[in-house]
Write a structure and sequence with these properties.
With 185 residues, the protein is mostly helical. It contains 7 helices and 2 strands, in the order αααααβααβ. A two-stranded parallel ribbon has the order 1-2.
Length: 185
């Protein structure tokens, strides 16, 4: 990601300048070699943006401790119970149809829709419902093409990336641009 690399270097240079000015009493004493050399201490954002792995089994506890969200909690408890039941049936040789977990999270901004979706995906991963447990988050820019025919390719690629896991489409309403026969169609 070009933007990430540019930001990484800009922050590293800022950190380097702070480090050098604290090491030297006078800026004129700083050598050219010191100016063109970045140290590991200067590069502090390498881990930024990476998702921290939660200890397996803690997502459900974190979800249960969230205040409110009683409807969402009921739905997710029922889905988990259904998954456990289907797993038990499979252990006894009773074949069940695979359920679809397509869901729409609605609510005002800031009501934890994205957080709930992420936690739900982790809970399903902990319950070993999905093969991979992947959680792929996509927005309009990840799905809508810039030219006719590109949208289908981008959508297919995201579905393949999420296969065996969860595809979360954040702000899905933005996919409908209001234009007849637009790229979002």
């Amino acid at each position: 990601n070009g933007r990430y690399v540019r930001n990484l270097l800009e922050y590293a240079i800022q950190n380097q300048s702070v480090r050098l000015l604290s090491e030297y009493d006078d800026a004129t004493q700083i050598s050219k070699k010191a100016i063109v050399t970045l140290k590991k201490a200067d590069i502090k954002m390498l881990d930024d943006g990476l998702k921290e792995e939660r200890t397996p089994g803690t997502a459900k506890k974190e979800f249960d401790e969230m205040i409110g969200l009683s409807n969402a909690k009921d739905v997710i408890r029922k889905v988990i119970a259904s998954c456990r039941f289907n797993k038990k049936c499979a252990e006894h040789g009773i074949k069940k149809d695979k359920a679809s977990f397509h869901m729409v999270f609605t609510g005002n901004p800031g009501t934890a829709k994205t957080t709930v979706a992420r936690l739900f995906a982790e809970i399903l991963k902990d319950e070993k419902v999905f093969g991979t447990g992947n959680f792929v988050e996509a927005g309009r820019a990840d799905l809508i093409g810039m030219f006719v025919g590109e949208t289908a390719l981008k959508v297919k690629a995201k579905f393949q990336e999420a296969q065996g896991g969860v595809l979360f489409i954040d702000e899905a309403y933005s996919l409908c641009d209001g234009y007849s026969k637009g790229y979002g169609d």
